[in-house]
Amino acid sequence: xxxxxxxxxxxxxxxxxxxxxxxxxxLSPEMTATxxxxxxxxxxxxxxxxxxxxxxxxxxxxxxxxxxxxQPYIAQAPALYVFVLDEYRNMVIARKQGGAVDSDAFTLKNxxxxxxxxxxxxxxxxxxxxxxxSLGLGCVILGSILNDIPRLIELFHLPKYTYPVxxxxxxKPAQEPEVKPRMGADLQFFDxxxxxxxxxxxRNIAEFNEEVHQYYDLRDPNTPLPxxxxxxxxxxxxxxxxxxxxxxxxxxxxxxxx
Length: 258
Description:
alpha+beta
């Protein structure tokens, strides 16, 4: 295998872990300002800046999020953010400039803009996560907050043309988990075209299966988990994710069929 090059930034990314236990210490104002500024400096599709992030500082809201996610540790996170795709702000700006935001000419509500705004929110979150980890903090990305999207919209008073994307919990780590194995690069990087050969996929997954199995066995030998392919097969038919789709987007003013 080709030897990797190392510097501080690369090593932060290569050693990324999800931290789910935090020391009860707040982030300093300087840390908070730094990681938020890092999020603001990411690329933005067509310079629309079409994302926002809500700092969750009220303990009752943290408790509500932890209940939605079914993950109690969320309530103990020293810093907690909910990232949203945000075309509401751009709608307000466009209206003030005389834009026809109440007509069919208004396209910020359509599928392309929705997707790009979602991408921008994820990029901002990842920049914040990386900046936080470079400062010695630990993070975990929270897709679990999408268990109840209508409740999120209600809790955070999300207006029309906004939609929740992901959460991010941040704090000083109170645990040292191992770095989770990654599948071989051949399975995710292709030259010129996608390799859709099932035998190629399964041949390479066989080795990865063993790595993942060992990782989970070492982490908790009392509750070993199945191999990677068995986990994927189970998740492929998991019905609990059906409520986390985009069916709630129409109530937020988006027209995703256009």
